[in-house]
Design a protein that fits this description.
Elements: E1 3-6, E2 9-12, H1 15-27, E3 34-35, H2 42-45, E4 50-53, E5 58-64, H3 78-96, E6 102-111, E7 120-130, E8 134-143, E9 146-157
Antiparallel strand pairs: 1-2, 3-4, 4-5, 5-7, 6-9, 7-8, 8-9
Length: 169
């Protein structure tokens, strides 16, 4: 990429990349979590997921555990945690793929700890690699500064127009 400095302003000969770079900075200026469960579905029905971009390859999501997330032992159901990871990681893949729809191909989960009613669950996703058709990533869920689950997965980038509905969940 070629840059030219004109009167203290850095100009890029590839204006498309320059605009995309600035859009990324503007989109990531807010440190606030935003609700991604906007349409009716499983995650919205179960309390929703809050999400934020940390960097171009790192994302965070969170939710608070309530009664309907518990199993018979009184701790958060593994199936709910799996769905939470799938929604948070899927949104990370979606954002990495420039808002193209993505679907889960593979998701490998490890349950390490527990959570209970009232606990805030924080997910941290790191994009490991993006190709033209796939996104590879890693995720950790934590509760009270303890890792309770980890996951690695692969998402397929669909070759259809970006969805106006936004990410799933």
């Amino acid at each position: 990429m070629f840059f030219t400095n004109v009167s203290g302003i850095l100009l890029c000969n590839n204006i498309y990349n320059f605009i995309n770079f600035n859009f990324f900075i503007i989109r990531n200026m807010s440190n606030e979590f935003k609700q991604i469960s906007l349409k009716s579905g499983f995650m919205k029905h179960n309390g929703g997921v809050l999400f934020r971009d940390v960097s171009k390859t790192e994302f965070e999501f969170k939710t608070t555990i309530n009664e309907n997330h518990l199993n018979a032992a009184g701790i958060t159901h593994g199936g709910y945690l799996a769905a939470l990871i799938d929604a948070g990681c899927g949104t990370s893949a979606h954002r990495t793929a420039e808002d193209s729809p993505c679907v889960t191909i593979s998701l490998d989960l490890k349950f390490i700890g527990k959570s209970k009613v009232g606990d805030e669950i924080l997910g941290k996703t790191k994009i490991l690699k993006k190709t033209k058709s796939l996104v590879f990533l890693f995720c950790e869920l934590s509760c009270n500064n303890n890792i309770i689950a980890s996951a690695s997965g692969i998402w397929k980038i669909l070759k259809i127009k970006p969805s106006k509905l936004g990410p799933g969940g």
